[in-house]
Write a structure and sequence with these properties.
Layout (H helix, E strand, L loop, with lengths): L2 H6 L3 E7 L11 E4 L10 E5 L5 E5 L2 E5 L3 E8 L7 H19 L3 E10 L4 E2 L2 E2 H13 L10 E7 L4 E8 L4 E3 L24 E6 L2 E9 L2 E2 L2 E2 L5 H23 L11 E6 L5 H11 L6 E5 L9 E9 L8
Parallel strand pairs: 1-2, 7-10, 17-18
Antiparallel strand pairs: 1-3, 4-5, 5-6, 6-11, 7-11, 8-9, 12-13, 13-14, 14-19, 15-16, 17-19
The structure holds 3-(2-carboxyethyl)benzoic acid.
């Protein structure tokens, strides 16, 4: 479907474009993420609602919502590289404040993009500064079970961009038995542990969804297979499968392994990795697994790729209304 058709559709919740495509236009449902793709035609991520959505802009936040959920995004210019901690703190407060005030109190899935992720300022790299700012905004008192599934990727373009999907009802957190929960990481990788859940599951009246965070080659809390992209991919798939098995034990997401996901998004640090990772993914997971490849920097310097996942399935009987 063309972009015009999708925007004309009152049930389109959000339309996320990537790469060097022209600016996304004025509709609050359009977001442009400045990450290039390795694919010939830049991918588009479309979120559909089962009912018509209402849209608007307030306090720099663009949103669309239906009776169960809200999709919101905010982008700020962020010019001074030493200011990311403060910018993240303020932006998270504004976003969470807006979600609270409008009744969509439960962030389920959040994506964060900013430039120069490894650049250091006063002893912290910008990812670590981001983690400090995010944690301060969320507050000491936050229940870690309420942390959304997340992605953080470094861009080549200045500015902080965040988009989020939030529900009126809470989701169910799913953690990975192969990995230490990110919010419990020891200080080896930064003074503030990262505030996100490995996955969130949510049952809507129209269907069930499993939102899987950006997943890297990390076991326990340590990076594995430095300089070995295929080794990292295999470890990531182990992590995704372990998470999906846990989700199944927690509450029927209806799938057994990574090959049954509705979509994976693969972030590559270097375009030269594409042929190797693309063919290894087809070998290790179903060749039919829907996938999308983007170029971006991963939070730790030794990580070469990261994969996030989404499963959308039928509603559980008791959730249909
Ligand atoms: C990791 O597992 C890899 O800070 O929100 C992946 C997804 C990563 C989200 C975040 C970080 C975040 O630690 C990095």
């Amino acid at each position: 479907m063309t972009r015009e058709r999708l925007i004309a559709d009152v049930c389109t919740l959000a339309l996320v474009t990537f790469g060097d495509s022209p600016s996304p236009g004025e509709d609050p449902r359009q977001i442009h993420v400045p990450l290039s793709s390795v694919q010939a035609s830049p991918p588009v991520e479309v979120w559909c609602s089962r009912e018509p959505v209402a849209t608007g802009r307030e306090e720099g936040i663009a949103y669309s919502r239906n009776s169960d959920l809200m999709f919101a995004h905010i982008s700020i210019p962020e010019t001074d590289s030493g200011e990311l901690e403060r910018a993240t703190d303020l932006t998270y407060r504004r976003l969470y404040g807006f979600l609270d005030a409008t009744g969509y109190r439960h962030p389920l899935r959040i994506w964060n993009f900013f430039s120069d992720i490894h650049l250091e300022h006063e002893g912290l790299d910008r990812y670590q500064a981001f983690c400090v700012g995010r944690h301060r905004a969320l507050g000491e008192g936050i229940d870690s079970r309420e942390l959304p599934a997340a992605t953080v990727i470094g861009t080549r373009q200045a500015g902080l961009l965040i988009y989020v999907l939030a529900g009126c009802d809470a989701g169910t957190q799913v953690e990975n038995p192969r990995q230490v929960s990110a919010f419990h990481y020891p200080p080896d990788y930064g003074p503030q542990s990262p505030s996100f859940s490995r996955a969130m599951m949510h049952h809507w009246p129209g269907g069930s969804q499993l939102f899987i965070s950006g997943t890297a080659s990390i076991v326990g809390y340590a990076s594995r297979h430095p300089s070995n992209p295929s080794g990292q991919l295999a470890e990531i798939l182990e992590n995704l499968n372990a998470l999906i098995r846990t989700a199944r034990e927690t509450g029927e997401p209806g799938i057994a392994d990574v090959s049954e996901l509705s979509l994976v998004k693969v972030y590559l640090r270097d375009p030269d990795l594409y042929p190797e990772i693309e063919s290894a993914l087809s070998r290790l997971a179903a060749p039919s697994l829907p996938r999308l490849f983007l170029l971006g920097d991963i939070c730790r310097q030794d990580l070469l790729l990261e994969i996030e996942g989404l499963y959308t399935g039928p509603a559980r009987e008791r959730d249909t209304r």
